[in-house]
Design a protein that fits this description.
Elements: E1 2-5, E2 10-11, E3 25-26, E4 30-33, E5 36-39, E6 43-47, E7 51-55, E8 68-77, E9 80-84, E10 91-94, E11 114-121, E12 129-131, E13 143-145, E14 152-153, H1 156-163, H2 169-176, E15 188-189
Parallel strand pairs: 3-7, 10-12
Antiparallel strand pairs: 1-6, 2-5, 4-5, 6-7, 8-9, 8-11, 9-10, 11-12, 11-13, 14-15
């Protein structure tokens, strides 16, 4: 079931399934507060038995913690790389945020390189912070994308559709062609 919601709308079907008492996963565009779940953006609310999320037609990407994004290195500032992820602010990436990186063993990242990373910190007052390792210190596919390829920008809703498990576009395409792709939640595809 889906319905249209506006920012600050209270989502009455809160965070638990009544029958199983299993917590629901709160997805994109929603925020859990002490008294329930609220919409952060205008869009169409979708939910199933395990999760609820909001589909929006936003043109600009708004970073959220836990999003995996693709970005281009625009400059180096001290111990940080500045990454363009398509949001209003450039994201910061510390040089030690790569698997195996230390002060002596720095990654070879240049301006113009493509990075696939995880947003670990967002704030209205600060620039978003990226990391190329998960909480266990493993890259798990994140990091510098050094293979040649094409970078495309698509709408945010199309990128989310490509990342969903029931998307048939990439599976049908893989029957005809051999390819490798990376899709970021920010609407960038490599």
């Amino acid at each position: 079931m889906s319905r249209i919601v506006l920012p600050s709308d209270f989502i009455t079907d809160c965070t638990i399934c009544v029958a199983t008492q299993v917590p629901k996963v709160i997805g994109h565009g929603l925020e859990k507060r002490s008294d329930g779940v609220y919409a952060l953006l205008a869009g169409v609310l979708h939910e199933n038995e395990h999760k609820m999320w909001l589909n929006t037609s936003a043109k600009r990407y708004i970073p959220h913690s836990g999003d995996r994004v693709l970005g281009m290195v625009t400059s180096k500032a001290g111990d940080y790389f500045k990454i363009d992820i398509g949001s209003s602010d450039l994201a910061l990436l510390n040089f030690t945020s790569f698997e195996g990186a230390t002060k002596r063993n720095r990654p070879n990242v240049k301006v113009g390189d493509l990075i696939y990373g995880l947003i670990v910190l967002t704030s209205k007052q600060l620039e978003p912070e990226l990391s190329c390792v998960d909480s266990e210190g493993r890259a798990r596919g994140m990091g510098l994308i050094s293979a040649p390829g094409l970078v495309l920008s698509v709408s945010l809703s199309y990128a989310r559709r490509l990342l969903s498990s029931d998307c048939k576009i990439l599976s049908e395409l893989s029957k005809q062609l051999k390819f490798e792709t990376t899709v970021g939640m920010n609407g960038t595809i490599w």
